Every structure is written in C-alpha cells, then in structure tokens.
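Hey everyone, long-time lurker, first post.

I ran two proteins through the pipeline my lab uses and got sequence/structure pairs for each. Pasting them in order. The first:
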Amino acid sequence: MTSFPDYNDDPVEANCRSCGAEIYFVKRHGKWSPINRKKLKIFFRRGNEWLCIEAHESHFSTCPQADKWRKNKPQKQAELPLKVDTKDTNSSKRAKSVPQAV
C-alpha cells in the first residue's frame, strides 16, 4: 500500500465507474477525491541541479468523463469581445484581443 502523509484517512482502492481505471479515493479537508494509482515523476530544476519527485495525479485530469462526476461543475468561460483599434492607420481596423469591462 502506498503511503499518503498529506491525507487524513487511509486511501480506498477502487476502479473508476466511467473509464475503469485503477484509482484511490483519498480524503483531504473532509472531502473524498479520486487520484490515479500510478505515480507521476515530476522533474524540476533548483539552481544547477535537477530534482525528481513522485506524486499522484487527480483522476479528474485524466478521466474522459470527469465532468459527469464533479460536484461543483466549472462554468464555461465566456468569450471576450474583441476591441477594434480605430487609431491604427497602417491597416483597416485590426481586431485586438483586449478584454472589455462588462
């Protein structure tokens, strides 16, 4: 069994009901969350040396049907309107991606 020092309770082994992947359910901050059983190796640089850590990834980031199981479904981000720069004399009204206050 894998050690989970950052989590409150022991992990529960399970399979995802949507895609069948092997996962753990872990409880953190009073909520159960699915994480993949397979650890990721994450490499990063500190100064002149490279370090490697292993971590479990949230199953929500890899499951094809993750949105079906989310409790708080993220809202789709609205498209930002394009601002037309009328002072541009080199071309005919180029559109620029500038967020507008709504």
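...and the second, right after it:
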Amino acid sequence: MYSADVDYYRATSVADAAKMLRKNKGAKLLAGGHSLIPAMKLRVAQPTLLVDIGHIKNLSGIKAGKKGDQNRCADHTHSGGCFGGA
C-alpha cells in the first residue's frame, strides 16, 4: 500500500523547519525516513507535510558537549562514521 498525498518542504535552517512545523499542525520531520516512510506506506502515519531537515549543515553529525548536553544529529548515517563507518 502507498501513502496518501503529502506535501514536501526542504528546510534551509532549524528556524525555517520550526516555522513550518508551527504553521502546519500535521507536519512531521524527515531526516532519513527509515521509520516514517514505511509507516506512511502502511498508513499508520499520515502527515500532511514532510519537513526535510536532512540537509541542514549544523545538524550534521554528532558533537560531544559538556555532560548533560543534548546532541543533535539529523544526518546520522553509517557512512558518516556515526556507527563505525569510514
């Protein structure tokens, strides 16, 4: 089964993505889609808008911070070294 119609928006910054999420109550973030896309195909998830954050530079990779800091990673890939890749 394939998902229902959905709009797609490629965010240019974190602020841009946040603005789109506030404006569109049914929106979901898309970074890799490894769980969201299959759920959409089964119609378990039916977002009205996909906000793609996978190309936002300051979300790429994992960065160590002070103890207790939250780390961000939208571009969390095997080839990027996050899971021991090259």
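Reply from user beta_strand_b:
Welcome! Quick read of the second one: The CA atoms of residues 15 and 58 lie 12 Å apart. The beta strands are 7-10, 27-30, 49-52.
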